[in-house]
């Protein structure tokens, strides 16, 4: 490093230099203290909860479940318009002799439906006696059954009447439990669907792998509570037949001798045996999934 | 600094050059040999499903036995042990399809159908010399493979112990951890009314069977401790007012006085070598920790504070101790070298901590924690991290570890007219169970595995 020439300074220059430094410091200090960063207050705009999901989660959401109930395509969740009932053929159900007795019974008071069958049933015993009196050779056992068959058909008969009775509006109301469930909370849709249609590509898709992972996670029961969790990591290679079953015993790639490792290895192998057949893997991608290497790592599960 | 120096190359003759060239060419060609291609798909499974393993336990076959119910009894003890551990779910025998006649012959599809993941077949037989021979085989049903088996010979009276040994072998093979079923528990059996409790020292198998009383109940007895190496226990007895510490040999019944220790509240604990005991001795208003050699009765002081240092416990390798001290104001847990020295506080939660006990596996310290009128049994790592409460309630106290360090036994005193009872919980905090005892019971101490 070359030494520079010493610069001789005059007194005046020193004073000016010092003053300049002082003024700079004052200005900077004032700036620091006045331009302090104010903490940002959150805007009181409406916040919308956003869920960030990984592709694994997305394929799980759209994968659906195989045993989900089959729903028809277009299921209209409309309020009930009106029940269309088949016009019952009352003559088919009633014995010929009893028809005369039934129609003689005065129509029930226009009360809601539940009391109506009760009332009907109450009037039944009377009619039973009448019926017995009319037909003595009729088997008594058949009567209660016929009475039951009569009771539901009779209220229906009442409803077929074209006259609109405002007091019977309640009987027309839809008594089904509401089908529409409000979408609140984290779950958007509680009902398990058969899944959104996914494109069938030539490439083994991430969702197939995720489905395989999900099944293995369901069946894998690793030993819990190890002091040295590294020894619980097991790498296995399995070869599969086109039908998704194991072509042979899985090959364990990691080695270890401790009892904990042996238990961990066995639990992983057991999960593979139990998971057969791996039918979530599409046959057209067989060339890609016929040989799979899986690493079972329980360290995330074991904490503390 | 880089210094330049001339590097001289070895002079190569023509012959060696040819050999060198041929060697590298051959080496390069081997690279072209077909190798096993790596798998096309690789995936990681990092989450599992921790559930009790369904296991099938058909009755042990047995013929010519002195007690015909013994074979079935052995099977039931094994099933009960495995189930109480919380890690296994024995399948109801009514669901079994195959009937085992030969313990080496198994039809795996029958067991797969009932979703058993493991299967135990076994037999009991009588030997020429009158001893019982027990064999068992353990099978992996889904992999259709044999996992292991053993044979035991034992006097007929010992048949329960064989069942516990088989339970331990199955437990170890399937979980990778050592079992704890072949062990005993010494405790204070309490009977009589609340005003006139009779306290006797009692010993039983860890499943509650084979109860034996070791004292008569004339004197008040407290806090028994098991030796890790021999069948000896120490306990405190209030004979004529002053508490004495006794050393009792369970096998011989021989009893000796370790010393008179006025003001002592807990009996001494054994060191891992079984030759020394560590205890807390009171002097004036404070208490300090001492180690005593059992044979020579020589004592060494370890702490010298104006506080109450008590309830010491050794680490399994004997190099450190944990103890309870109120030197910081409230009772807390401290860890110190086994020869004394500076003590480090490891408990920092809300409440006061007491009765620390080091696990035989060395990975946890169990303790009693009091706060807001509630008592909790918890565990923490020896450095104080990972504190976890296993059970909470009114008056839970006195944790003791199973020999494999996976289960903690303690006693719970509900207060009122009812007396205390023994309970176990595993280190994950799950599977709390009541331990059967003849009457009320307190102050349990778990023995090491029997030899």
Can you tell me the residue ranges of chain B where pLDDT is under 50 for at least 5 consecutive residues?
1-8
CATH class of the domain at 206-300 in chain A reads: Alpha Beta
Distance between the termini of chain A: 59 Å
* Strand arrangement, major sheet of chain A: 2-1-3
Regions of chain A with pLDDT < 50 over 5+ consecutive residues?
Answer: 92-125, 140-161
From the N-terminal CA to the C-terminal CA of chain B, the straight-line distance is 68 Å
- Do you know the CATH architecture of the largest domain in chain B? 6 Propeller
Oligomer: heterodimer
Considering DSSP H and I runs of 4 or more, what fraction of the residues of chain B is helical?
10-25%
Number of helices of chain A: 10
Task: Tell me about the largest β-sheet of chain B.
Answer: 6 strands, mixed
**Describe the biggest sheet of chain A?**
3 strands, antiparallel
Walkthrough of the structure:
The complex is a heterodimer of chains A (304) and B (451). Chain A is mostly helical and 304 residues long. In chain A, 40% of the residues lie in helices and 5% in strands. Among the domains of chain A are: 90-172; 206-300, 2-Layer Sandwich (Fusion Protein Consisting Of Minor Coat Protein, Glycine Rich Linker, Tola, And A His Tag, Chain: A, Domain 2). A 3-stranded antiparallel sheet of chain A has the order 2-1-3. Chain A is flat and about 100 Å long. The two termini of chain A are 59 Å apart. Chain B is mainly beta. Helix content of chain B is 12%, strand content 41%. Chain B has 4 helices and 31 strands. The A-B interface holds A 204, 209, 212-213, 216-227, 237, 249, 258-264, 266-267, 269-271, 273-274, 287-301, 304 and B 38-51, 53, 117, 140, 142-143, 147, 172-178, 361, 363, 381, 385-386, 388, 406, 427-428.
């Amino acid at each position: 490093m070359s030494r520079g020439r010493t610069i001789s300074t005059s007194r005046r220059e020193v004073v000016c230099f010092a003053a300049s430094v002082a003024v700079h410091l004052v200005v900077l200090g004032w700036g620091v203290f006045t331009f302090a960063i104010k903490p940002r207050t959150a805007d009181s705009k409406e916040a919308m909860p956003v869920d960030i999901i990984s592709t694994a989660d997305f394929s799980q959401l759209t994968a659906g479940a195989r045993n989900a109930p089959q729903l028809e395509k277009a299921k209209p969740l409309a309020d009930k318009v009106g029940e269309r009932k088949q016009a019952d053929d009352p003559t088919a159900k009633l014995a010929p002799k009893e028809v005369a007795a039934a129609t003689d019974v005065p129509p029930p008071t226009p009360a809601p439906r539940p009391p109506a069958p009760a009332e009907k049933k109450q009037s039944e015993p009377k009619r039973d006696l009448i019926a017995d009196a009319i037909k003595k050779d009729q088997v008594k056992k058949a009567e209660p059954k016929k009475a039951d068959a009569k009771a539901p058909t009779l209220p229906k008969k009442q409803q077929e009447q074209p006259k609109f009775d405002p007091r019977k509006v309640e009987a027309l109301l839809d008594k089904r439990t509401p089908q529409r469930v409000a979408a609140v909370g984290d779950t958007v849709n509680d009902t398990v669907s058969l899944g959104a249609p996914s494109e069938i590509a030539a490439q083994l898709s991430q969702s197939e792998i995720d489905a395989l992972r999900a099944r293995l996670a369901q069946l894998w029961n690793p030993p819990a509570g190890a002091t040295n969790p590294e020894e619980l990591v097991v790498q296995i290679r399995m070869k599969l037949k086109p039908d998704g079953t194991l072509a042979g015993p899985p090959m364990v790639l990691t080695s270890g001798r401790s009892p904990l490792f042996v238990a961990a290895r066995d639990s992983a192998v057991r999960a593979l045996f139990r998971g057969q057949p791996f039918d979530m893997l599409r046959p057209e991608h067989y060339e890609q999934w016929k040989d799979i290497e899986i690493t079972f790592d329980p360290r995330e599960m074991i904490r503390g | 600094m880089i210094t330049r120096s001339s590097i001289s190359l070895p002079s190569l003759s023509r012959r060696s050059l040819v050999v060198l060239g041929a060697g590298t060419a051959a080496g390069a060609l081997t690279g072209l040999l077909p190798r096993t291609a790596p798998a096309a798909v690789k995936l990681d499974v990092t989450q599992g499903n921790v559930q009790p393993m369904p296991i099938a336990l058909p009755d042990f076959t047995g013929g010519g036995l002195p007690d015909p119910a013994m074979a079935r009894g052995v099977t039931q003890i094994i099933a009960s042990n495995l189930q109480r551990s919380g890690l296994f779910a024995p399948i109801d025998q009514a669901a079994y399809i195959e009937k085992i006649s030969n313990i080496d012959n198994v039809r795996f599809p029958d067991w797969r159908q009932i979703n058993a993941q493991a299967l135990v077949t076994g037999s009991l037989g009588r030997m020429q010399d009158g001893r019982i021979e027990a064999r068992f085989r353990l099978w992996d049903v889904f992999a259709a493979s044999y996992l292991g088996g053993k044979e035991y010979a034992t006097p007929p009276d010992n048949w329960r112990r064989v069942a516990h040994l088989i339970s331990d072998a199955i437990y170890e093979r399937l979980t990778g951890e050592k079992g704890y079923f072949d062990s005993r528990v010494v405790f204070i059996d309490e009977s009589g009314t609340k005003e006139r409790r009779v306290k006797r020292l009692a010993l039983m198998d860890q499943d509650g069977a084979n109860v034996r009383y070791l004292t008569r109940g004339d004197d008040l007895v407290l806090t028994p401790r098991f030796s890790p190496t021999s069948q000896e226990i120490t306990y405190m007895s209030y004979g004529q007012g002053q508490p004495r510490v006794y050393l009792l040999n369970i096998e011989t019944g021989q009893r000796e006085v370790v010393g008179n220790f006025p003001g002592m509240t807990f009996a001494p604990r054994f060191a891992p070598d079984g030759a020394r005991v560590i205890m807390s001795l009171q002097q004036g208003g404070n208490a300090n920790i001492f180690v005593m050699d059992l044979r020579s009765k020589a004592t060494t002081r370890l702490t010298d504070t104006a506080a109450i240092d008590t309830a010491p416990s050794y680490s399994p390798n004997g190099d450190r101790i944990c103890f309870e001290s109120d030197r910081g104001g409230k009772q807390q847990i401290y860890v110190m070298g086994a020869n004394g020295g500076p003590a480090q506080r490891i408990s920092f939660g809300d409440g006061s901590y007491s009765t620390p006990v080091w696990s035989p596996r060395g990975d946890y310290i169990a303790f009693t924690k009091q706060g807001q009128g509630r008592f909790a049994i918890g565990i923490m790592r020896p450095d104080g991290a990972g504190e976890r409460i296993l059970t909470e309630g009114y008056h839970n106290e006195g944790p003791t570890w199973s020999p494999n360090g996976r289960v903690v036994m303690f006693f719970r005193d509900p207060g009122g007219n009812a007396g205390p009872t023994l309970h176990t919980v595993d280190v994950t905090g799950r599977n709390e169970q009541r331990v059967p005892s003849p009457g009320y019971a307190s102050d349990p101490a778990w023995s090491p595995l029997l030899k």
